[in-house]
Known about the structure:
The structure is a single chain. With 278 residues, this protein is α+β, with helices and mostly antiparallel strands. The protein is 36% helix and 27% strand. The protein is built from 8 helices and 13 strands. A hairpin with a 2-residue loop joins strand 9 and strand 10. The longest helix is centred in the middle third of the chain and has 21 residues, at 130-150. It is globular.
Amino acid sequence: MPLYMDIHRNVTASAEEAADGHLRDLEAQRKYGVRYLRYWFNQRAGTVFCLVEAPSSDVAVAVHREAHGTIADDIIEVEVGMVQSMMGTAEEAPAWTPGSGGKAPAESPFRTILFTDMEGSTATTQSIGDARTMELLHTHDAIIRRALAAWGGREVKHMGDGIMGCFDSVTSGVECARAIQKGFASHNLANAEMPIRVRVGLSAGEPVEQHRDLFGAAVQMAARICRLAGPERILVSNVIRELAIGKQFVFEDRGDHALKGFQEPVRVWEVHWAEGVS
């Protein structure tokens, strides 16, 4: 499928509004058979670049039009090498947040894998009924997808009461996990009668990719660690902690755990995301 880069000039949006626009593209793209892969936002210059796989440039434009009504000033067909030449790596030409660092997926098989799981979703459905549960799940999905978009993550799959995502860097994955918990904390302050609590687990490695899904030990470990986490907590594997050395994260040792499918115990760490969390 052709690859296009579109260019928006004289953009006055905030970083959060740019991230929300990308999220709207992701929500609208399936209808058109389009994949918005990535965006770069230079707030100082007032420019946004969007990288998209689409059957044609007109179809790519149609997604923008439906998602948020903002049409690019230019759109050109590109090749992967051309994109790398123009934009460089994420460290050289970052999107709006430095957390979206790392190389493009075509350059490296390394991924940081993130799983989320909503606490008590079955009991919630029985308590408040299907209609209200669907409203709650829509809010749940929006909070997680906003964090994924903000930190350069890709949603791999939706699992009803949880989402699997992947990142090209450890920093992006951990920051996204923190943003997810902060997003739910803010929501719960305003909706104390119906809070949403999620657990988050992360690991990293070189999973096998097939049909846009990911498989392998890194994926399995992230899923197991997510199940191990308590609600409103973030747990990560030892590889995440080691690769995040020098970053401003606070990790707390949660000991070795026997995880299903792994012969050796796995050292697990908790990531602090708010003052007073231990």
